[in-house]
Amino acid sequence: MLDDLKQKYNLEFKADEPLAAYTTFKIGGPAKYFIEVKDKDELKRALLAAKENSLAYFMLGGGSNILISDDGFDGLVIRLISGTCRFETDGSAVCFAGNNWAKFVRDAIGQGFGGLDFSGNIPGTVGGAVRGNAGAYGQGVGDFVAEVLAVDLAASDDFVHLSHADCHFDYRESVFKRQTGLIVAEVAFKLTPSEKSKEELLQAIEAEGQSRCAKQPLKYPSAGCSFKNVVYTDELSAYKDWETHGKIPAARFIEAAGLKGKQIGGAKVSDEHANFIINVDHATASDVIQLISLIKMKVRDQYGVQLEEEIQYVGF
Ligand SMILES: Cc1cc2nc3c(=O)[nH]c(=O)nc-3n(C[C@H](O)[C@H](O)[C@H](O)COP(=O)(O)OP(=O)(O)OC[C@H]3O[C@@H](n4cnc5c(N)ncnc54)[C@H](O)[C@@H]3O)c2cc1C
User: Fold this and answer.
1) Pocket perturbation via mutation, ligand 1, pick of 38, 47, 65 by most ligand atoms within 8 A of CB
2) pLDDT tens column, 299-313
3) Nearest-atom index, ligand 1, CA of 130
4) In whole angstroms, what is the distance from residue 203 CA to residue 30 CA?
């Protein structure tokens, strides 16, 4: 099968590739098949290989928002890596989805464009950021997306152009999350010249990075925030003091439920930031799942709030 795949699709497929190292959690078993792609044509060939050979597929970016099962993934993992990013003087930039997000933000600043600096320390790729409308401080990267070139594996098996409106960006949401057959291949951004100097913007990112280091348990492997923040409604008025940017941080509920420091196996609720589950000692995916279930149950029982995972499960 492996040799057939390599020959037919002209791509260097691998078999039984361990996946933990490709994730920021450092958790997860192997992929049955694995391929790294660096441009949109390789991506399309890899996706066709999955479809034509009835293989389940999973798109892997920076692996910074996922929990892979201990049994791994029984199909084809397609990892997007690097690729090109073109900047134009009118503020448009077209990037392959595999580009590193933080590097893209710094490159945009280098070209004189601002606005994205709020996201300069978010790990992962351009494709992962757009798919999840990654963000911080009430802003999302989707606001800067003009158009997406996607592979439409559910219908045409070909590239389709989606306008900003077609992407349906919302808090940590987009059409790519809801329609799994739509794969982000290339993103066209619309950026504006910055009034601040490049040095000022880069220093602001550096300072934000340091503030993250102070608040987040970055010396341990994790997948960032485990749960989405909770949209503030009148029903939550008892917790109005916790509201920020129209949401209540999930960490508030987790901490108030007394779960900071709770550990199951090698997975622990961070003492520094209660929405981070950290891998303190060779955690398994099963440890993390048990901890997530406990958190959801306690927060629901004590506050009537149903927490929703921000991390994506793979291979369960
Ligand atoms: C320390 C830390 C801090 C973080 N801080 C933030 C933060 O401030 N704000 C925030 O929003 N997030 C944050 N995150 C989460 C994470 O960095 C973002 O969600 C990021 O955008 C995920 O990108 P990725 O490339 O790593 O995606 P992955 O983790 O590889 O994948 C995530 C999901 O996206 C899908 N996907 C990936 N690429 C594509 C594609 N091209 N087309 C379609 N689907 C695709 C995958 O299949 C998967 O379902 C943090 C994570 C860590 C570890």
Assistant:
1) 65
2) 999 999 999 999 999
3) 21
4) 40
